Amino acid sequence: MLAIETSNLTKVYRKKHLTRTALTRGVEGLNLSVDKGEIFGLLGLNGSGKTTTIKLTLGLLRPTSGSVTVFGERAGSTQALRKIGYLPEVPYFYRYLTAKEILSLYARLSGLDNVAERVEHIIDMVGLSQKRDKQLAEFSKGMLQRIGIAQSLLHDPELLIYDEPVSGLDPLAMQEMRTLLLKLKSRGKTIFLSSHLISEVEKICDRVGILVKGNMVRTLEQSQWTSAEGSLESIFISEVADSAETDRMKL
Amino acid sequence: MKNILSIARYTLVENIRNKIFYVLVFFGIIIIAASLLLVALGGEQQIRVLLDFGLAAIEFFALVTVCFAAVNLALEEMQSKTIYLVLTRPVSRAHYLIGRYAGLLAAVYSGMFLMALLHAGLLVFNGFEFNLRYPLALLLSAEKITIIGSVALFFSLFSSSAISSISFTVFFWVLGHFSEEIRYLGNKVTYLVPKIVAKIAYYTIPNLQYFNLRDFWDVPGITGGWIPAAIIYGMLYSVACMTLSLWLFSNKEF
Predict the structure, then answer these.
(1) So where are chain A's domains?
(2) CB within 8 Å: B13 and A96
């Protein structure tokens, strides 16, 4: 069974002004399949549709047309969400709650029974045992990122969706994140991540999809960027440049 | 139900750690200062003024709190994006919104209860003979707050701007105290359009005069059928507002 499947997925944002409605295309006709147990990277420039695709997969946005399923369930349904752990690009938390309180809240909302035990385990795992009773307002950016990771793993989900997981991290934290993702993959988890940091993506992904202006222009297997065809960066730049050239020709 | 309780619990903690206690301290200072001034008046007047002033102040502070907090209940979470990590869990949007609203009401009711304890203490200290009308007056104030909270929540989901939502809620709150006048206007006016507008306003704006027991403190037998009817009316109005809010929220995108 596929972990994620999109079929002809299109999202058009409508912004109403006083006299007119502005239409912006988020993604268009996206056909994507993510296999169970793989690490799939979504590559694209800023505004290419990566976050839109993720939000559609999570049910935070609704498709204008087409469909998304997660392990065969409709995206956004409680059955689908039960299997997902999500880490947004910048994890925003209730800053007046302590680390223990916020993780307990997420554990309860995820339907866990052994909340206290699970929260203690996950706090230890991300190395925040000494800070468990501190309010998040006192946490540094790196510590908040650890809470973000902890909340995504709390309920031991089958699919992890990470939006720009290494964006803004220092080299050491980046390496820790890479090690964690590979460890999760070895445990059979499926990981769907978005990034514009090609060097990181090529180190860990089994496959990548290149998004340009809401269109999936190419999907690559790891062997294609490790073989003679060239580095992932050169392939990516060539695809983005081709798309820009096509746009210029149309004009 | 478990999800609603979890969400209500963190909303209660949020409100207590953020706002309610500051309002309570402020109110406490005012009421104590006012009671010291009222002592100077002496006689029977002192207790009556302290009673009316205290009940009005409890309601006013609770209304201000519920108005601002309800408008920001979902709006703030949408703007700060904290909502992402809740709605990407197996939690229905209806459970989320009901939990948030219940938590807010619990926080405001707790604040009212503490303010009322302080107020009742001052009243008894000044020789007030405690009777059932005091808790009933508070109960009806709480009902008014429940209505205004649901109205504010509905407007916040409808307009997506805190200032306009607060303005609409205050507008409803003010007009809600003139329901009988609006009905009178609707009956008296002869032109069709103003008549229809007055009728629509009368039936859509909550009649908040039903909840002002303190205005009829000395009228004998007033509490009989009125209070249960007011409570049922308040509950139905709040449920109707919440139903509309749930419909708006279920269609929202983040």
Answers:
(1) 2-70+184-250
(2) yes
